[in-house]
Amino acid sequence: xxxxxxxxxxxxxxxxxxxxxxxxxxxxxxxxxxxxxxxxxxxxxxxxxxxxxxxxxxxxxxxxxxxxxxxxxxxxxxxxxxxxxxxxxxxxxxxxxxxxxxxxxxxxxxxxxxxxxxxxxxxxxxxxxxxxxxxxxxxxxxxxxxxxxxxxxxxxxxxxxxxxxxxxxxxxxxxxxxxxxxxxxxxxxxxxxxxxxxxxxxxxxxxxxxxxxxxxxxxxxxxxxxxxxxxxxxxxxxxxxxxxxxxxxxxxxxxxxxxxxxxxxxxxxxxxxxxxxxxxxxxxxxxxxxxxxxxxxxxxxxxxxxxxxxxxxxxxxxxxxxxxxxxxx
Length: 329
Prior knowledge:
By secondary structure, this protein is of the alpha+beta class. Among the domains are: 1-66 and 168-196; 73-157, ApbE-like superfamily (T-fold). It has helices at residues 44-65, 73-80, 90-105, 115-118, 131-138, 170-184, 275-288, 290-298, 318-323; strands at 9-11, 22-30, 33-41, 86-87, 146-149, 154-157, 190-194, 197-201, 209-215, 218-228, 232-237, 242-245, 248-251, 265-272, 304-309, 314-316, 327-328. The strands form four sheets. The chain has a nine-stranded antiparallel beta sheet with strand order 1-2-3-7-8-11-14-15-16. A three-stranded antiparallel beta sheet has the order 4-6-5, with helices on one face. Helix 1 runs antiparallel to helix 6 (170-184), helix 6 packs antiparallel against helix 7 (275-288) and helix 7 (275-288) packs antiparallel against helix 8 (290-298). Mean pLDDT is 91; it is low at 1-18.
């Protein structure tokens, strides 16, 4: 989650056959990713106010939870928590508590302390850490070493060298907050997206929102379409931040158990009632692989997934197959 850039609002033309309303959208770069808000509203001033409020919330979350901003609350934790308990706000405390719940549920496949290894990779310059560096850093990985005191509202690292990163969590949380803001402004039809994470509000005025799953190896191509209403969807792919060396693809999705990028999956898309869940589970399934990951998804009511494996084959959870929802491209 990094820098921001100015954005311009885009006001779409009035839809044919409608009165007193229009689609509005805006794009910004926040949290190191593309943020987009699109909505239908009868009053242009209300639409602008709603979009402004969502973007302000994205900036607020970025300022608090970015590991790249030295003044953020998360950076303060990474800097000081190995030396002793660090008091944090309720929002961050609750997110850390939820992350531990997902870690326990996934058997450690989801673990925000992976950052002790993850920060050693440089995807822009194509740098991977040595086997020795990974081994040293892995000693500091493990959600059980993340100690929360609910009464004191503190967090402490039980091992030196620990770091946490909410990159697998914060965007889902942000789109959830954005959708709640739209509803508070009276918006009944809209979508808030942050990179591969989206939260849908209502339908698209009488029909579902159609969300495309991109082909992990052909940028711009879509391999499946999902019609959705009032849902969250998250995609994790090995193409977002990556480089290849000696035939091995190194990407930003790290298996906490190995400190390396999993190779059994190209992308995972999860549909869930909320963005926090969809994003956490998309990362989890990516690490677990198609078979174990889909078994986990089948155990969670109201959650579905599409997995593209290492051979490019699609795997759908039973809920999507039974509902006849996915459309292959």
